[in-house]
Specification:
single chain; about 220 residues; 2 domains; six-stranded mixed β-sheet; six-stranded antiparallel β-sheet; 4 helices; about 40% strand; globular; DOMON domain-containing protein; membrane; transport; AIR12_DOMON; electron transport
């Protein structure tokens, strides 16, 4: 029987073992013991999650938004648009990573012009902080929400830092589709530790891993 070349076998094994497989999910992310939430959602794009708890007493939402930390200078953000599911008109919490140092501030996204200016938002924000741990940036905050707002327009994004300032994000499908409704009631009543959205046990299997596995299997079959 014909067999695959030694080079192809080595290449297959390399793909199998070195393809990236990690993924941020609600079930795998470890938050500080000082932060706990009633609900968590695996957001549909940009490998991000949102932990949240709704406080009906003061009509506020405590959140922890997590996304991959930029490998070099860059930014990640999470925000709310009070009027529509789009970027313009949103109030955003943007965490920047510049020369290894991470900071977070509030920004009003009133136009496509960048860099954005740090401004007070149309809704109150407090307990704003950020951490960059194990390749994940997490933004912590509490935000005031409308008393009768059952659903909020949330959006999230990632992008580059250009000349020390926030640059425009990419216009790929995953970037343009990074918006979804946030059900306030779910954050109030969901059992602790629950999660919504797509789940796969905390592991995302890359195409390279599958290809490597198939090629290795074929090499043994054809020996």
């Amino acid at each position: 029987m014909a067999s695959l070349s030694p080079f192809l076998i080595v290449f297959s094994i390399t793909l199998f073992f070195f393809s990236p497989v990690s993924s941020i999910t609600c079930s795998t992310q470890k938050l500080p013991s000082t932060h706990s939430y009633t609900n968590c959602t695996n957001l549909p794009t940009l490998n991000a999650t949102l932990h949240s708890t709704y406080n009906a007493t003061n009509h506020s939402l405590s959140v922890a938004f997590a996304a991959d930390s930029p490998k070099s200078d860059g930014w990640v953000s999470w925000g709310i648009n009070p009027t529509a599911p789009k970027m313009f008109g949103a109030g955003a919490l943007i965490a920047t990573k510049i020369s290894g140092k991470t900071n977070v501030n509030t920004y009003n996204l009133i136009s496509a012009s960048v860099p954005y200016k740090q401004e007070k938002l149309s809704f109150d924000v407090w307990d704003l902080s950020v951490e960059d741990v194990n390749g994940v940036i997490t933004i912590f905050a509490s935000v005031k929400v409308p008393e009768k707002g059952d659903s909020l327009n949330q959006l999230w994004q990632v992008g580059p830092i250009t000349n020390g300032t926030i640059g425009a994000h990419a216009l790929e499908k995953v970037n343009l589709g990074s918006t979804a409704p946030l059900e306030v009631a779910a954050a109030a009543v969901a059992p602790s530790g629950s999660e919504s959205g797509s789940k796969n046990g905390g592991v995302k299997i890359g195409k390279g891993l599958w290809l490597g596995f198939v090629l290795v299997l074929m090499s043994f079959i054809n020996m």
